[in-house]
Amino acid sequence: MIAKPSGDGVPAYYQKYFDLVLEDDLGFALDSGRSQMLALLNEVPDSKLSFSYAPGKWSLAQVLLHIMDTERVLNYRALAFARCETQSLPGFNEQVYAENAGAEKRQKADLLAEYEGIRAASITFFKHCDPTALDRIGKANEVAVTPKAIGWMIAGHELHHCKVIRERYL
Fold first, then answer.
1. For the chain, what is the domain count?
2. Whole-structure pTM value
3. How far apart are CA 148 and CA 6, in angstroms?
4. Of 10, 20, 51, 132, which alpha carbon lies 20 to 30 A from 107's?
């Protein structure tokens, strides 16, 4: 079981995401999030992928790719810190990523398959990561964080965007 962390290595900014996760175990939270996301996306018709709820806001496909891009970046950070990386890792510009992801060319089935692969990799990594490695502190975007906290960020970030999708895209 990987319980929610507290204290050192938990960036204050991400507390809002931690608070969205009701499960007590990270593996269960990631798996539950996957089930919720897939159920939500199965409600979405292909024609809705290009929908944006307001001018200047991302399309639904861009939101989905943002969730996946963020999970990939966070997984890399968790891996790096679990393996004792001492260099500070850079931040990333989510807007630039979204603009260059090619969302308009994507089909729903492809997005779902990609999402499932990324989430499966996340679940496997955290499941098999040494417990002491999960508490190692690294720096990303000049903020101290542990791999354990990153796992919970992934779960909460996804729940945040599921809520946004339900409220503004469906």
1. 1
2. 0.95
3. 10
4. 20
CATH code, domain carrying 48:
1.20.120.450
Tokens describing residue 135: 């508490």
Q: Tell how far CA 149 is from the center of its chain.
A: 12
Q: Has residue 115 been placed in a domain?
A: yes
How many other C-beta atoms can be found within 10 angstroms of the C-beta atom of residue 114? 14
Q: Which of 148, 159, 130, 116 is nearest to 25 (CA)?
A: 148
Inside any domain, residue 10 = no
Per-residue pLDDT of the chain (170 residues; tens, 9 = 90+): 999 988 777 888 888 999 999 999 999 999 999 999 999 999 999 899 999 999 999 999 999 999 999 999 999 999 999 999 999 999 999 999 999 999 999 999 999 999 999 999 999 999 999 999 999 999 999 999 999 999 999 999 999 999 999 999 98
Tell the burial category of 32 from Cβ atoms under 10 Å away from its Cβ (0-12, 13-18, 19+). Answer: middle
110 lies in some domain: yes
Question: How many CB atoms are closer than 10 A to CB 49?
Answer: 21
Question: What is the spatial distance between Cα 13 and Cα 140, in angstroms, rounded to a whole number?
Answer: 13
